[in-house]
Amino acid sequence: MVSSPRLFWLLLAFLLAVLRPSAAAHDYGDALRKSIIFFEGQRSGKLPHDQRLTWRRDSGLHDGAADGVDLTGGYYDAGDNVKFGFPMAFTTTLMAWSVIDFGKSMGPQHLAEALKAVRWATDYLLKATAVPCVVYVQVGDAFRDHSCWERPEDMDTPRTVYKVDRDHPGSEIAGETAAALAAASIAFRSADPAYSARLLDRAISVFEFADKHRGAYSSSLHDAVCPFYCDVSGYEDELLWGAAWLHKASRRRNYREYIRRNEVILHAGDSINEFGWENKHAGINVLISKEVLMGKDDYLESFRINADNFICSLLPGISDHPQIQYSPGGLLFKAGGSNMQHVTALSFLLLAYSNYLSHAGGRVACGGASASPVALKRVAKRQVDYILGDNPLGMSYMVGYGARWPRRIHHRGSSLPSVKVHPGRIGCKAGTAYYLSPSPNPNVLVGAVVGGPTNTSDAFPDARPAFQQSEPTTYINAPLLGLLAFFSAHPDPNSWSQD
């Protein structure tokens, strides 16, 4: 029941936004396949025989050797050649969450490929946490790397290794790494029980280190990790995030009690509507809310209330004090660079929460109004469709999907001639000519989703130097796996449960 004319018009505006028809039906299954292939283009280490992006070759084969450790493998986070552990761990957590909640919608082949993508990361994270009370958090001198434009196969900048330990703590990255290992242990529980158990055991020990030796890696390793992946929101959210995933993976009461004791941390700032590699608050609320909605833990009711408030802040025309804007073309927008990281992560939470509400027969309470699970799904689908081409430019922001997509992405390996075409080494500064060239990238990084429009005008410059718009990242794609899986299995809104 709408209680006032104002609420009626707000709800009408919201429905018009989410019911806007798509320009054309999308092949979400094809987009899912390509979004998984993207991760193969980000691989470091010795590539497997079934590598599908064949313009890539082995790289970083001696990572960690100078320090007496094996740190080969893992992912490059974006268009550079550094292995940043913080975003890699977050990417892993979100890929695993996609598999946990939406793996059944992927189909056997896509599920197997998604698990391969997760395992490429977790195999590396196991190496990075093999020494007790130590987490190796970065390979590569970011400043030196960013001064070059060279292929990962050619890189000759220092592969400096950075770590956190008892004397140099890093609770945010250790907490996120524990979350990634715990989430992945759930994802592999059926496919590989022994591997799943190994991941969970490691997650427990890494979390114990994160909690016992508290401190910020952004302080311990400030000169190496800032301003690239500097955590300005504090490490407390990663500790709760790690505990939440460990509770979900192990069902141990001590993690539930840890969450209860530390719940006040969620109220320490004004940013609980944030979710991304740097801030986990909204994700914590949504993840824990499932327990509440299923009637398993009324003690954590405050997390569900926080989740409702967060979800309401995303719904067009609902909130009196919205912290999210939408562009004229319908794209969710937050200030800062690489806007698609917000679009995919927040849309994933919308979809996950809508499913939790559906199973519990609930709705989102937004003051005097409310929204159904179906309404949440429509908002999430609108964002996915915008990414795939339903936008004012008619451009897909996923490379290789649709008729028109970004051709000059900010990505070294994609923009430089492949080793197969140009076997000779291309030096640090020799790549500058390719960086500045107006020509399209010679190698297609299939499935990469770029940063996209970073203002409310829906404009996009298809240019390498515009890195905030044209650079892809692993943490843009990770939550997209779950979104595309769901919509590939349920493309017709009429098939969703009714309001």
From TrEMBL:
InterPro entries: 6-hairpin_glycosidase_sf, 6hp_glycosidase-like_sf, Glyco_hydro_9, Glyco_hydro_9_Asp/Glu_AS. One of its GO terms (biological process) is cellulose catabolic process. The keyword Protein transport does not apply. Residues 28-484 form the Glycoside hydrolase family domain. GO terms for molecular function: cellulase activity. Keywords: Carbohydrate metabolism, Cellulose degradation, Glycosidase, Hydrolase, Polysaccharide degradation, Signal. It holds the Pfam family Glyco_hydro_9. Its EC number is 3.2.1.4. Residues 1-24 form the signal peptide. It catalyses: Endohydrolysis of (1->4)-beta-D-glucosidic linkages in cellulose, lichenin and cereal beta-D-glucans. The active site is at D462, E471. The keyword Hydrolase applies. Belongs to the glycosyl hydrolase 9 (cellulase E) family. This is Endoglucanase.
